[in-house]
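call fold target=ATP synthase complex subunit 8
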Amino acid sequence: MPQLNPNPWFFIMLSSWLTFSLIIQPKLLSFITTNQPSSKPPTTSNTTPWTWPWT
């Protein structure tokens, strides 16, 4: 059963994981978020419950 042979696939998985964790992830984490967190309290809207005609 050739799919149980980890020889080529383990190296591919390991190299892609290392590429992501060492090269791509620090580049992505260095970006500044566009929406900075605000200190305003969240607003809640007052809604009226829907009256269902069959209840």
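return ok
DSSP finds one helix and no strands in the chain. The mean pLDDT is 81.
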